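Hi support team,

I submitted a single chain yesterday and got back a structure, but I'm not sure I'm reading the token output correctly. Could someone confirm the output below corresponds to the sequence I sent? I've pasted both exactly as they appear in my results page.

Thanks,
R.
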Amino acid sequence: MELKGWRLRLPLVTPYRLAFGPVTHLDTVIVRWVSREGMEGFGEATLLTGYTDETIEGTWAKAQELSRAVRSASFDLEGALDSLLPTHPFLVTAFRTAREMAEGSELLSLEAPARVPILGLLQGEGEGALRAAADALVANGYRTVKFKVGFDPARDAAAVALAQRVVAGRARIRVDANQGYSAAEAIDFVSRLSPEGIELFEQPCDKEDWAAHAAVAPVARDRGIPLMLDESIYSEREIERAAREGLAAFIKVKLMKFGTLAALRAAIRRIRELGLVPVLGNGVATDLGCWMEACIAAREIDNAGEMNGFLKPRERVLAEPLVFRDGAIEIPARWTPGVRPLGPLCCSAATDQVV
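Hi R., thanks for writing in. Yes, this is the structure output for that exact sequence:
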């Protein structure tokens, strides 16, 4: 078995505006796993400060350490990954999904072609710019859009009202605060909203502040605006707590938090068992991770996916482009893409590698 890794800095076409600051590039670690039989697989960890406690520096250092340690016949890689999962799930996911791909996981091979609808990001300053953005999204086939808030409750509520006007029933709106509010601010914000066209309100408060979400959830519910948790969810344990305490109607999951494709599928099925609605997808991921999530979504999800991160960077990771057409990712039957050559000479994005 052989491991190799790359650290990439992938500039975005357009900055991605979040409550905890604009995102101008993706910080990504790519892992290549070659099995004893010579089969190759790849996995990714893309780190976003403010979303996860993992950092690109720490993840890259640990990836290098593991890639070198595996050269020793006595090194227990699986044991090391097990011990790292609670604190470094993004890193572990990069290694274990690379292994799943190398082993020919059935979850990455669709028996028939699939279309996976995804959402688009609605942003713009002023009614004219916002209307033009909404028109473009609808023309490109999007029927669900995401609108970012989490800055100031009153101004955010006015901005959502404007978004509702320019979308005008042509698409559903997911309102995402990215942990930007206190409980009082979130209640103030949601109390100002009309529910028309709003599918859900996502992650109003800090991921660790379950009491804040418990305060916001009934107010949102009374306003006819279901709550969704995202950053708070790392495992089935948090899913079960959200269901038990009535904190959300929707739960969003992302491959990078769950370690393996199989664990992600199990989490989605657990969400449904608990009477909640699963949402899947990562807006901060390369085309490699988005392809893997889309393969799961094609089997398990019946609403708009959020795996649109692949549309944001200027450069791609996959050797063959992930196809987006008319609001959806299109995946051919039994399609397993390769990865481009990665290194300082292949593209401006590659910054470091370990062999």
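A quick pointer for reading it: The chain has eleven helices and 14 strands. Let us know if anything else looks off.

Best,
Support desk
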